[in-house]
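Researcher: Next entry: Ubiquinone biosynthesis monooxygenase COQ6, mitochondrial (Parthenolecanium corni).
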Amino acid sequence: MLFKRGFASSNLANYYDIVINGGGMIGSVLACKLAKNTALRDVSVLLVESSPEKNWDAELRKEAGSFSNRVSSLNENTKTLLQNVDIWEALKSISCHGVSQIKVWGYGSKNIATTFDVDDVKTFDNLAYIVENHILIAAAMKELLTLKDNVHVLHNSSISTFNLPQSDENNVKIRLNDGSPIECGILLGTDGANSKVRQAMGVQYISWNYNQRAIVATLKINQNEKNNTAWQKFLPNGPIALLPLADDVSSLVWTTSPDHAKTLLSLSDESFVDALNTALFEEPVPDVLTENVSNVISKVLNALKVPEKRKNIIPPTITDVVENSRSSFPLGFGHAANYVAPRVALIGDAAHKVHPLAGQGVNLGFADIQCFDSVLTKHKSFGAKLGCANCLNEYETSRQRNNVPKLVAIDLIQKIAGHQWPPLLMATNAALQISDAVPQIKKCLINSAAA
Ligand SMILES: Cc1cc2nc3c(=O)[nH]c(=O)nc-3n(C[C@H](O)[C@H](O)[C@H](O)COP(=O)(O)OP(=O)(O)OC[C@H]3O[C@@H](n4cnc5c(N)ncnc54)[C@H](O)[C@@H]3O)c2cc1C
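Model: Predicted structure:
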């Protein structure tokens, strides 16, 4: 049976103001954010996570040179959030590699590429930061140990029954898998793309599979310069991304068809490295019509006085793949038509799931956290009941306005980029050429990805 704690706004046994279901990157950082919000000092929080508790200190004692194959590219906005909850410094000292350049090109367009450089904006130190997911979670969980007065964390636990209210007059009633009944003012679903909270809400969920898998792996690379560049090549089966982790180590996210992924996973390490280098360096015979269209665009850009700086793209050569670091994940799209119901809200992948090609998935979830925390604080300062309909609706409207255009744009890129049908190939090349040449477009894309 669950222990009792100091109850803020109710005297009910096993009452919490907020229950967060799911302690992944989003749930654990959300718990830190709410617990550190001085305006919510009297609010009790329970974090329920189905996986076992780990020794967080041991997780954070990383062996030099060893890297997990699960990494995320975090943007500037996420960095600010992690700084606010005091876990950025720990993360930075253990697992964080800055990306100062991003180079994007396509199959059949090697000399047509877009290079994003941190100097294009001058407002950030880096365009992105590559961190290991498990280190981020360990840093947040360790921080939560210092916040025990506000947050109780239950591992090896899940919600077995949900009794969600019809209106915001009533509390949420849940039962944990050990039989403990809990009542809460707000239930937050941070339990990922297959969210049980979302299922209990019964909201419409628009989703599809891309019929693609992402192979992840840790790679040894040969690079003459400092390894601060993220590379992405769009191939007909999907993009290959190399994310820098250390001077001679990068993380791979190779999107491809399920059959090809199966073959790639079955190869020996050496054959896999050969296949990867071939995919990175091989180019098809140029299509004359596509070349002509590119030349016309070049002339137009020159006439408009935004000349291109065409350069051959030379990615690093892969020299090895870390043993047993290869695995793969199915890719899909998902979006909940509603993020909220009376006294319930969805945050992170529970609300929206995107293709990893733009490195936005978890960043959108972190932006959800910032928004949720700020609307909760605002409505509490008005004296409104915690989790009132106005507050949750404001969160939903604000986040859907921001998330939906990004989800649509990423889905569109997934469908178009890398396609070898000449009109789509020309469209991709034109987008790469124009975005590389016009500084305002580049700035706009960088700022949008950072927010
Ligand atoms: C190959 C790949 C690469 C990616 N790269 C990037 C990137 O570079 N940048 C980026 O921004 N995003 C990236 N993403 C997306 C990112 O990984 C997700 O957006 C992120 O993991 C979502 O975090 P989350 O905490 O919302 O959900 P999850 O990571 O799914 O976490 C959910 C948590 O809830 C727990 N849980 C699940 N069900 C229950 C339950 N019933 N009860 C209790 N607990 C439960 C789970 O154990 C887990 O801890 C990538 C995704 C993939 C597949």
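Model: Note for the record: Residues 1-12 have pLDDT under 50 and may be disordered.
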